[in-house]
Amino acid sequence: MGALTTRPGEGLELRQGHALAGLLGRPPPCLRLADLPTPVERAAWLDRGDVEVWLKRDDRSSEIYGGGKVRKLEWLLANPPFNGRGPIASIGGIGSHHLVALALYLRGLDRRLHALTFEQVVTPHVEANLATLASLGVEFWHARTRAGLGLAWLAYKTWRRPAEPGVMMAPGASTGLGGFGFVGAGLELAAQIRAGLLPKPGTIYITGGSAGSSAGLAVGLALAEVGAHLRIVSAVEAWSFNGLLYRRMIRQIVATLAVHGLDPARLRGGADRLLADAGVTWSIDHTQVGPGYAVPTDAGRAAVAFAGDHGIKLETTYTGKCLAGLSADLAAGAAIRGPVLLWNTHGCNDLTRWQSVGWERRLPGKLRARLPALRGG
Ligand SMILES: Cc1ncc(COP(=O)(O)O)c(C=O)c1O
After folding, report:
1. In terms of domains, do 159 and 182 share one?
2. Structural domain contains residue 156
3. What residues contact residue 284 under an 8 Å CB cut-off, 6+ apart?
4. What is the pTM of this model?
5. Number of domains comprising the chain
6. Could you tell me the mean pLDDT of each successive run of 10 residues in the chain, 377 residues long?
7. Which of 60, 71, 97, 288 to mutate to test the pocket of ligand 1 (most atoms within 8 A of CB)?
8. Do 210 and 238 reside in the same domain of the chain?
């Protein structure tokens, strides 16, 4: 496969015998970036009535930068078109975890990130992510809003075209192949259930943005024949993540599995059938989005504080809203099939070691000028 640029000593090596190897006739390579499996643990502090709650600790998936993103990057960075030596371009908010993960893992490969960014409310957590991006030398093409990204893209392709343009990676690393990271996560959970580390969950709470994590998980659980309900607490508005887009992501992942030699007999009835036969169902909850993507809500803040009291670090854009969704369902006495597993997708590593003094000076002027107003938002 040619151009894989791993560096011994940086922990960037191929994962041998990865979770999907046994399922695929032609398994693609996968980098070993994450410490897997991540632990599962009881979270009795979240129990309500007779519903028992467990946690999947993807926050422990790496000492460099954990959470869910590293699971996707293991696949994408090992394969074309992302396994070369040049820069990668991708899209996200100025506090995007995806961009932070990408910048950190590209750093280990001596490669650069070009970030097409849009504004979001600057909480201390978002500021830490932005400071990390700027300090790592990420180059920005900035738009104020998501709608304005088209212009940033045009600038990237034309009048502010970089000397060496990057290969474009989908937002959130959510592609068919990126989704393999969470297919593997579903298989990993199945193995933990079989090993008796946790009971089989009736419902799994996971947050959703670009859909690759929750879609991959649904496929992985189906392949492992672990029937469960996925309750996807959306961090984004319904126009940006909904049942249609979710189904499309599932189909994309399943099609990519087929390309890599998944037994066609398993796919005879298509992706919907694969899930249905295994008893994997899903629903999307948009009630926690609040005023918009990445705008902190009271419920999200309260969830972050509550989890913090129990030693779990969440953030207000994704995982706080996910816990708020779980808490709201439990409080409303909704018919939740237990036990519940809450998937913590947040990489809460301390990023201060990457941050340099004066990082603001590396931001595009118009973003630097807007920071005080965004902090007040
Ligand atoms: C912490 C965190 N959890 C979950 C998600 C959502 O995952 P996905 O984009 O695959 O739906 C994201 C990012 O996009 C994230 O940053």
Report:
1. no
2. yes
3. 208, 232, 234, 241, 242, 243, 246
4. 0.96
5. 2
6. 40 82 95 96 96 98 97 97 97 98 95 98 97 98 97 97 97 98 98 98 98 98 98 98 98 98 92 97 98 97 98 98 97 90 97 97 96 86
7. 97
8. yes
